[in-house]
């Protein structure tokens, strides 16, 4: 295999939870060396987030943490301790990239902000990710992706008209922002290669995620119209939604996008006469009579298993797919063929196949997961001795004064 595209790039990762760790993971899968700065005194939230391997919650058994942190090294440093910050400075001086996702002002409080760093290392690439960015009246508001979806408007338009808003699953904005951040880091690396100069990437989850809410915002700007919740319906298609199937809690998605697909759908369900009924002849007609239309579709889907419906409609050229459960996704033959889930041994979790790879493959330097997510502080000796050139005596002094942490201060608690 050719040398990985980011081989030789070194990252000091102060970021935690999802955005920062997922961003650097793209680099790690393609050769970068990532050192994750953690602490026993304040755990990365994902370390206490389910699911846990074997349903045994420990600081090193969170599969949520494992999903975002393969191929990385972990050191445990108390950044509240003056000598801990000295260690952090050593890692910053070693690194090409620094990533952090604390509330604005936290790294500055420790003397580790971008302006502090660039004075000593002007070519540093420094990524700061926060919920609402720096500057503005709400800059200091902290939160997670499940909070940011409300700011962005996603929650208000998700759900049914006669029910309360329903937020998208999980920390949605985290998974949007990490793609933008990865691209920004790659651009900064290219800029530094050409000019020798570093830069500060300052990112707001709120602003980044609005790219995915642009149509409703533009509709309001232009037409003074506010998008309303409408379940699974679409203004551009009918029928369009999720319909019940034969069996226990089985469902199928169907999307009829134009009149040709509507005729194909009617033929597929052996009711060609439906296509000629004036209530359903055009999209506008089908939208006006959508309640009746969906009842007719449901009456048909309830008699068949979802696999049967999917194959019949896809053969007819009508977009349709079963509503997959986690088991269906994990066992999907397409993902198996592309080796998406990687089996790997973890010292605490055992052999797991939970490591999904990046959803793209570079032809010359393809993605690679060679190590599982690290245990907390697992690589203290390796990083401090090999990467930073510290002696055993120096490391022992930091352990003795507590700036290198080695034990949890209390009982491990699950946070989510």
Concise synopsis of the structure shown:
37% of the residues lie in helices and 14% in strands. The protein is of the alpha/beta class.
Key terms:
single chain; about 425 residues; alpha/beta; Rossmann fold; formyl-coa transferase, domain 3; 2 domains; six-stranded parallel β-sheet; three-stranded antiparallel β-sheet; 17 helices; 11 strands; about 35% helix; elongated
SSE blueprint:
Layout: E1 10-13, H1 19-28, E2 33-38, H2 63-68, E3 72-76, H3 82-94, E4 97-100, H4 106-109, H5 114-120, E5 125-130, H6 145-152, H7 172-195, E6 199-204, H8 205-209, H9 214-223, E7 240-244, E8 251-255, H10 259-268, H11 283-288, H12 290-301, H13 306-315, E9 320-322, H14 326-330, H15 333-337, E10 341-346, E11 350-356, H16 380-387, H17 392-401
Helix pairs in contact: 1-7, 6-7
Q: Please estimate the helix content.
A: 25-40%
Report the span from N to C terminus: 40 Å
Q: Detail the poorly predicted runs.
A: none
The proportion of residues in beta strands is 5-15%
Q: Mind telling me the C-alpha Rg?
A: 26 Å
CATH architecture of the largest domain: 3-Layer(aba) Sandwich
The CATH topology name of the largest domain reads Rossmann fold
Count of individual helical segments: 17
Number of domains: 2
Strand order of the largest sheet: 3-2-1-4-5-6
The helix/strand series, from N terminus to C terminus, equals EHEHEHEHHEHHEHHEEHHHHEHHEEHH
The CATH homologous superfamily of the largest domain: Crotonobetainyl-coa:carnitine coa-transferase, domain 1
Structural class: alpha/beta
Largest sheet: 6 strands, parallel
How many E strands? 11
On the 0 to 100 scale, the average pLDDT is 93
| Global outline | elongated
Quickly name the level 1 CATH class of the largest domain.
Answer: Alpha Beta
């Amino acid at each position: 295999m050719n040398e990985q595209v980011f081989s030789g790039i070194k990252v000091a990762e102060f970021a935690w939870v999802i955005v920062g760790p997922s961003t650097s993971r793209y680099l790690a899968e393609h050769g970068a060396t990532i050192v994750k700065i953690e602490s026993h005194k304040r755990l990365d939230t994902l370390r206490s987030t389910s699911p846990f391997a074997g349903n045994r919650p420990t600081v090193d058994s969170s599969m949520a943490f494992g999903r975002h942190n393969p191929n990385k090294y972990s050191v445990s440093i108390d950044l509240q301790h003056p000598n801990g910050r000295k260690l952090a400075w050593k890692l910053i001086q070693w690194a090409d990239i620094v990533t952090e996702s604390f509330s604005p002002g936290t790294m500055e409080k420790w003397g580790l902000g971008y302006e502090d760093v660039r004075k000593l290392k002007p070519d540093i690439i420094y990524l700061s990710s926060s919920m609402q960015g720096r500057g503005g009246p709400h800059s200091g508001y902290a939160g997670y992706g499940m909070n940011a979806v409300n700011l962005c408007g996603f929650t208000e338009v998700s759900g049914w008209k006669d029910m309360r808003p329903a937020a998208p699953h999980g920390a949605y904005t985290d998974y949007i922002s990490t793609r933008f951040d990865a691209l920004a880091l790659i651009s900064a690396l290219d800029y530094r290669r050409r000019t020798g100069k570093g830069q500060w990437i300052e990112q707001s989850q709120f602003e980044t995620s609005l790219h995915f809410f642009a149509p409703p915002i533009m509709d309001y700007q232009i037409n003074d119209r506010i998008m309303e919740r409408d379940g699974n319906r679409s203004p551009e298609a009918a029928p369009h939604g999720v319909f019940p199937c034969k069996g226990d809690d089985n469902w199928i998605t169907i999307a009829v996008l134009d009149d040709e697909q509507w005729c194909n759908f009617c033929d597929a369900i052996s009711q060609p006469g439906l296509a000629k009924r004036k209530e359903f002849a055009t999209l506008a007609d089908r939208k006006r009579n959508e309640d009746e239309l969906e009842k007719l579709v449901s009456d048909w889907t309830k008699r068949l298993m979802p696999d049967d419906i999917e194959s019949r409609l896809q053969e007819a050229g009508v977009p349709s797919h079963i509503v997959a459960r986690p088991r269906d996704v994990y066992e999907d033959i397409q993902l198996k063929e592309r080796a998406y889930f990687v089996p790997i041994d973890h010292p605490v979790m055992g052999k797991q196949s939970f490591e999904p790879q990046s959803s793209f493959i570079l032809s010359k330097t393809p993605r690679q997961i060679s190590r599982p997510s690290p245990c907390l502080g697992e690589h203290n000796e390796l990083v401090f001795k090999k990467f930073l050139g510290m002696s055993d005596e120096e490391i022992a002094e930091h352990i003795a004064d507590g700036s290198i942490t080695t034990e949890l201060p209390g009982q491990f608690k699950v946070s989510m």
